[in-house]
Amino acid sequence: xxxxxxxEDAWNRGDYAAAVREWEGxxxxxxxxxxxxxxxxYRLGRGVTRDLAKAEMLFGKASxxxxxxxxxxxxxxxxxxxxRAAAMPYIRSAAxxxxxxxxxxLGIAHFNGDLAPKDWVRAYALMTLAQSAGLPQAAPAITQxxxxxxxxxxQAAASLAAKLGEExxxxxxxxxxxxxxxxxxxxxxxxxxxxPASPPRGSPxxxxxxxxxxxxxxxxxxxxxxxxxxxxxxxxxxxxxxxxxxRPPFGLAQAETxxxxxxPSDPxxxxxxxxxxxxPVVRPAPRPAAAVATATGPWRVQLGAFGVASNADALWARVxxxxxxxxxxxxxxxxxxxxxxxxxxxxxxxxxxxxCSALSAAGIACLPVQD
Length: 371
Hints:
Blueprint: H1 4-12, H2 16-28, H3 32-44, H4 52-64, H5 68-80, H6 84-96, H7 100-112, H8 120-132, H9 138-146, H10 151-180, E1 299-306, H11 309-319, E2 330-335, E3 338-346, H12 349-361, E4 367-370
Antiparallel strand pairs: 1-3, 1-4, 2-3
Helix pairs in contact: 1-2, 2-3, 3-4, 4-5, 5-6, 6-7, 7-8, 8-9, 8-10
């Protein structure tokens, strides 16, 4: 019998074809978790021929059932292939929950005034939040904005960024709590025109895609589709480099070739040891390794939310030795049919964000939350 967990186990040991076989049945029966994982297989081309159209379709189906990460991928994939107006409700929804990639895109849209109302204060605030989360494309974007946005508006953006950050934390908590309780999270509906608006809370997107009006004159970019012209009266300037590939799903490893061991800080470290001295030297016994102190603090890093508790065990076994996790006690939070896996004891939001940035760079999805 096909099983999502069995498929995940196969994926984690590198048997992608077996994982796909396990997920196809549940996905066809409407299991959003299976649809999400199968979409990842098609997106990455593992166990199946790479098919971005099929991946996007599966992300859309899972998103329509309230799968938050699927909605994030769905919006990013639509944006990447040029359906920017249709993608914006998903981008806005993800930005409202603090996703730095979405904050980056929405910030550019508010700066240019094409896919969102022109609002330089909000644009700068969103880009500030994306930069604080460690998104590398945000820093050059802020440098560009600094050339155009007056100082008074940038100062106002600092206060707005703090407010938006608090609202994103509240939204994230509420939606995670809803998922824990088995509540269906309604995805944003596709817009009827290119003018963005707050994500509707109505029914899921219709299968037919809306007609997107012709794009305005665009600013040249390095790979990422431009979000339109810079505001009227300003000279055009290139936007930042493209966003990185979206993160992998909770509980699924990227299964890339393991990174090479870091080079020693001094080339002499790799030299052969000198020959022993003529007389033996009595060396003191090595000191035992210091125990890793148990961290305490109000912030936690959520590593995943699982319908099968053993999946949380498998992920913890994979990450517990990483420096971002070592010394941080594990917590399993059971709510209804879902088990949330968390590493606890981070002293501040900044510490949790730094840990998440490093984990995301290694292909491990996470989310900072507060006790």
